[in-house]
């Protein structure tokens, strides 16, 4: 690494510690393009010196506030649509699938409209609203406490119902996914339900756009101990994907805009 890049990285960390947060502000402060800034953020997060967030970064130890559902629904929408198309193509007639909370998983439900001979188990109220009018899809809603920020349920009641069910596939949303560590979320209740969803399904899929790869901005974690598949968007960079590719238990799928799988 050149001395110029090293100095820029040091300046970036100092700026974060001083309270500069957003990508636009950091780009102006450092006098670099957004493309260069993004690469620097990815590199520094890989080194454990910062945590990338939606639209910027925070110093290590910082906690990212959760965005509202409306904000998250429109964030990276085209990536989420591509991931949802790729995920929907994996689901076969006659299967039972678990669909987790989140906006990317909600986009998956939209791609299942018009399908038949499916059973969908979900804690996602957006999924329930999307598929409730589909005669060919049996819906099972996991009860429990409703998180207003995500319009999803969790807690003991949801877990009690899920323990009596099983599925061929589970499709998980996440605030961030780190190779070798797992999924991060804002609350332990969310994590406990995700762990149970994985235990009750034969195959595990994590739906995460490229902004969530390597992100550890929340403080509750679910390890990914079994073989699993990461479905992300084709804009993900090699630096983000390589830590996942190096794990023998992980299959990486990168979805193009039309939902087809690009070379990963």
Automatic annotation (TrEMBL):
Q: Which SMART domains match?
A: DeoRC, HTH_DEOR
Q: Where are the transmembrane segments?
A: none
Query: Which residue numbers delimit the HTH deoR-type domain?
Result: 4-59
Q: Which PROSITE patterns match?
A: HTH_DEOR_1 (PS00894), HTH_DEOR_2 (PS51000)
Tell me which UniProt keywords the record has, alphabetically: DNA-binding, Transcription, Transcription regulation
Pfam families attached to this UniProt entry? DeoRC (PF00455), HTH_DeoR (PF08220)
Output the InterPro entries linked to this UniProt entry.
Carb_Metab_HTH_regulators (IPR050313), DeoR-like_C (IPR014036), DeoR_HTH (IPR001034), NagB/RpiA_transferase-like (IPR037171), Tscrpt_reg_HTH_DeoR_CS (IPR018356), WH_DNA-bd_sf (IPR036390)
Q: GO MF annotations for this entry?
A: DNA binding; DNA-binding transcription factor activity
The entry's protein name is Transcriptional regulator, DeoR family
